[in-house]
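Hello Y.,

Per our agreement to keep a running log of every chain we model this quarter, I'm adding this entry. I've kept the format consistent with earlier entries: sequence first, then predicted structure.
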Amino acid sequence: MIYLVRSGPEKLVIAFGKGFFEEAERTILKWGEYAGNDPEEVSTFAGEYCRVLIAIVPDEETGEERLRIYVSNKSHVTLFCQLLNGDAVSSILHCWREPGYIMMRLIGDAEAAIAKIKEDLNATYVNKKPFFRRTLPEDSTVVYFTAEPLNKIVPDEAMYDTALLVEGHTKEQIMSILRLRSGEYLSDSMGTPDWNGMEIQIGDKEKRFATHRRRIHVAVQGLQIGTIVEEGWKREYTLMGKVVKVYVLRLFTPLDAEEVKGFLSGLEYDANGERVADLDLFVNGEKISWKDKLTKEGLSKKELGLEARENMLAHLDPFSARQMRDLDDELKNEAISAG
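Predicted structure for the entry above:
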């Protein structure tokens, strides 16, 4: 399944009184860890389940404001309980919640989809920066946009400059609306309501179909490129007229055939550069070939496949990358057992 909408880091701001922060910080460090004094830097690694505390602390000598940032996977409710139990709440002058954070994936002409979302949510255009704004209503939400998969942290440079500020709806309501209509908005950005149906055929003389099937599932999910809607066995004729069984997966994706052919070519090779399978791609019954690409780039089929493999692994989330390497080991062990 392809994910198009996810939540982002929750930000809480607490202003502390002069001379009281040192004691409060001991409690805060039981909740999370110190992450510097730049909220914008924190935004580059704060993921979906991250909780951010922006502490405003007066300088002991000058009284000037300085920031200290803390991050945790624990909730802000847990933080307040710890501050209360540690008798540190008396050091708090004021606290507020920064606007909610939502990230949405759009492919193609994102501006068209963003304009439609703006109209539907009665939103306002804002710049994606700064991460720490201080001037926006606490009950508002900022919706950010990217073309990148949402299964890992999206760096600032991969986000569109335009974001939307939404008021009048809770973050949870906005998430529900965007998830419900995400396919429609993606179609707006792609300029067509049609996704692409493709057929992936697995051929392997070692008959390691189950492992190859899992590798394709891991890649599709880890790269967030679409949904496998059907799979099963099929009989094919070789050039010698022999009947062989191939395993077929039908992929539903917003990507074009060349992009899908790219990650499949990477899956044909293992970490040692050995070709471990024939993975053919068909669109409307026509087999997709990379012969023109091989000629144009002056690479061998193996070189192109290994390049595609490295590119695929680099774009997988850490969990999927580990799974893929484990499955590569399974292929190797199956080959040894068969030998």
